[in-house]
Amino acid sequence: MSAVILAIESSCDETSAAVISNGKVLNNIIATQAIHQKYGGVVPELASREHQRNIVAVVHEALKKSGLKKHDLDAIAFTRGPGLMGSLLVGVSFAKGLAIGLRKPLIEVNHMLSHFIEDPKPAFPFLCLTVSGGHTQIILVRDYLEMEVIGETQDDAVGEAFDKAAKIMGLPYPGGPLVDSYAQKGNPLAYKFSDTDMPGLDFSFSGIKTQFLYFIRDEKKKDENFVENNLNDICASIQHKLVQMLLKRLEQASLKTGIKEIAIAGGVSANSGLRNSLQALALKNAWNVYIPKLEYCTDNAAMIAMAAHYKYVKKEFVELDVAPLARMPI
Ligand code: ADP
Ligand code: MG
């Protein structure tokens, strides 16, 4: 059975399209929206308009790069949620239009579920630490469609904490990757920050954001160039603490469940501190770790395409009246 699927991802601020043929991703085109930089965060209405501007070119490029024509497609897949409603609507509507025009079936994909469907795949059951601008969760994955959130943030996501720390230091949005690059040249133990105690495997990042805000404010009272003069050490220290907060719960989750197959996913999984510390923990605890390629860390249609492939095989299609969901439970 031929299974050539075009997948569209538009849940937040990346317009992406990918083509997958019999389980093999042929390409993964991503248009990142630079417009949000000057506002210090994603502006939903602008994101939706940028998706409208980009989507035709992105889909066209994905098809062209795969050497296929629209009529070679067997199905059209799209991110149904979770995400920004205006952004999702563009991808969902475009996918429906294509499906109607080509008379091909539609496949909906849950963005969160798709995050950890990459080769090589962990063996079931595995734990996935999903860390992005909108999520911080530990998910126990028993099977592709059977999973349970066993720990999650009760307030902000870790990506938000990275971005907020960067903003407090006067760095542009999104600050996470910048904090990471300065951190690589700094001393992670130069400044101390504390964790917030949470029951079970849950996270909280609002406390450390406030701690960081007051820390910078107080230090700047003593030395107005404090941030400029110590940027590498400050970034290394805050990153070190955020990574520790994540890995402490992940280690507890592994102990509690006895599971040693460990994956990470989402934008923050690009963080070099997290990647390195996870490798070190893998050695210490005899874990098998699965760290995504950098291009698969942020939002991309390749992961939507991989998830869609499994649904295609099972003939899990949706009707044309399917609506996007801003919140979509896994
Ligand atoms: P969402 O779509 O939920 O906002 P993404 O998966 O697109 O999340 O990831 C974006 C988030 O990842 C942003 O908060 C960004 O700062 C963060 N991020 C990306 N790269 C890094 C990195 N190297 N270090 C820390 N955070 C990062
Ligand atoms: Mg994003």
Count of domain modules? 2
Going across the major beta sheet, what is the strand order?
Answer: 3-2-1-4-5
Instruction: Give me the CATH superfamily of the largest domain.
Output: ATPase, nucleotide binding domain
Mean pLDDT: 94
What best-fitting shape do the alpha-carbon axes yield?
A: globular
SSE run:
EEEHEHEHEEEHHHHEHEH
Helix run count: 9
Give me the count of strands. Answer: 10
Please tag this protein with its features.
19% strand; Nucleotidyltransferase, domain 5; binds adenosine-5'-diphosphate; globular; 2 domains; alpha/beta; single chain; 5-stranded mixed beta sheet
Verbal overview:
With 330 residues, the chain is α/β, with parallel strands linked by helices. It folds into two domains: 4-115 and 298-313, ATPase, nucleotide binding domain (Nucleotidyltransferase, domain 5), CATH 3.30.420; 126-292, ATPase, nucleotide binding domain (Nucleotidyltransferase, domain 5). Helices cover 42% and strands 19% of the residues. The chain is built from nine helices and ten strands. Strand 4 (75-81), helix 2 (85-102) and strand 5 (106-110) form a beta-alpha-beta unit. The longest helix has 32 residues, at 226-257. It is globular, with a radius of gyration of 20 Å. The mean pLDDT is 94. The structure holds adenosine-5'-diphosphate (ADP) and magnesium ion. Magnesium ion binds next to loops. Residues 12-14, 133, 267, 298-299 line the site of magnesium ion.
